[in-house]
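Incident log, structure service

09:12 report received: a user says their structure output differs between two submissions of the same chain.
09:20 pulled the input from the user's history:
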Amino acid sequence: MEKWLESVYSDGSKYFVSTPEPELGQMVSVRIRMYENAPVRHVLVRTCPNGAENFIHAERIGTEHGLAWYEASFKVSEPRMHYQFYIVCDDVIYYYTQKGITTYIPDHTFNFVLLADYRQPSWVKSAVFYQIFPERFCNGDPSNDVQNGEYEINGHSTIHMNWEDTPLQYSEGFCMDFFGGDLQGVKQKIPYLKELGVTAVYLNPIFEAPSVHKYDCIDYFHVDKHFGGDKALEELSDALHRNGMKLMLDISINHTGMAHKWFNRDGLYFDKSVGAYNNPDSRERSYYFFEPGTNEYKGWADVASLPTLNYTSNELREVIFAGEESVLKKWLKPPYNIDGWRFDVADVLARNNEIQLAHEIWPEIRRSIRKENPDAYILAEDWGDCGEYLQGREWDSPMNYYGCGRVLRQFVGLPDLFNERNEILRNVNYTMTAEDVKERITEHLAKIPFVLAQNQFNLIDSHDISRLHNYESVSWDAVRCAVILQFVLIGAPSIYYGDEAGIGGWTENNEGCRFPMPWGENFQETPVFRFYQTLAHLKQESAALTEGGMKFLCAQGRCISIARFDDREAFIAVASQEEQDTVISLAPGSIGAKLPENGTDVFGEPLKADTLDDNTILLTVPAGKAYLIRCPLK
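09:34 re-ran on a clean worker, output below:
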């Protein structure tokens, strides 16, 4: 394609749409830009109101930083208004959607989309999340620690561990090895989180449950006493908010633990007259999937200890999300005032063979949450392509493994997270190219409205996967490459507790990614901590990294470059997984930018660059290295 096409760009941000969150019936202006000397005769915007094709002429409204701007206006006449750009030249028409440029008329899959009357949780796009596995973060009150033999479940008793101990393998501890982390400990570490640059805390489950991980809930309406109880959450929420930070809780409303008072299979915590398993006439019987006339029930992933909830029950809907005293609303209300929910295994919620209620239930959940808190964040666990849920009526974001974590981990040398679970697929050792990364991320983002793209929860590590830096085959330079790319992707980055401390662990199973935070080590003076701290504070300080556009500048071999930019500055990330130094062509001029005069990146690394023309440079990238370059505009 023609070189000038590298400069063609538009998105759904405030820099390219007059009103990114329009009301129904409102007039909006949309803009597109390209090199000022591009051989363009006309630019048209194609809309399709009420199914009928319509073309609007875009006027050239001016030039800035070497780029010409074109603008067109139309009425947002439908709840979901989509559009494409037609760029007309002498002998060809270029068609531009969120996926990119074609010389054929594209379908509507990747269209630009404006959502009428959609409210974005605007705080998310500038957030730096910090995910905490509460039991292993900080012991703020030893008096509430779980003691040896305090209780048992499934025949396994609790084990009290010392903070410096190594977590037990599942075959030894059965997720019953407790180190004493609690909410008081999180509260005590707020100054540390601020120093790091965190603006939002995501807590793994904290409600009453017997295990370490607490996804086997026994009571949604109370915080576990070993985490400090309800009062500790109230105090933590208040302290975080007073420090300008947000709080998101984690919950599984797809299943409960078998000891939950609604199910109560073995009568461990409640009299056997209570609950669905032993009392077929109980109200809670309709909350679960039982075979008629029997006590055979469905468990999540066929795990008997995690009975699946049945959303054909209106009573269950009322108690989980619809009622004023429901589970989800309780914690959104004072005195807890949480700012968002992360939903465990959201991809399977309300889905059971012939019963497929997901797209009925999720809009109801969304309406209920947003009625209580219009800015609440709705984060869902889904590891795959889930664009159907990201259209403004259901989720704000998935745990973005598909468009971030799985991609970046594979790019730096690991097998895909899904493929490595399959004995056939894991043996195919394919090395992901930069073009693969570009196409995968672009496809994910191009399927969703831009206001949803800005919500994406971008992670590399979590409580469910081995930490990237714990793999012997992954160097620190490779980790740096992945994390720099994570922080420049559109959306909000999430740091899994301890990554900034180089926390220990192993990679064979989940127990290896849940080590106690190494507070006894002087990790805050290390280059690893300062690296994460620099990125976190940059994310907060620069609108280019929060509100700005995103564009791939290079995908060559195993070297990739991503730019973020607004009307004041640009950031260009470059990450190489090549085994030798590589020279790549970059066009900062395509985003109206130029290299910094000091010739270094934000970490002080010197840049070896040669000017090719007014818009383009040749950059030498050392083998396996990454840069993050802060660029002024031309």
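09:41 both user submissions now match this output. Likely a transient worker issue. Closing.
09:42 reviewer note: The mean pLDDT is 96. The longest strand covers residues 54-64.
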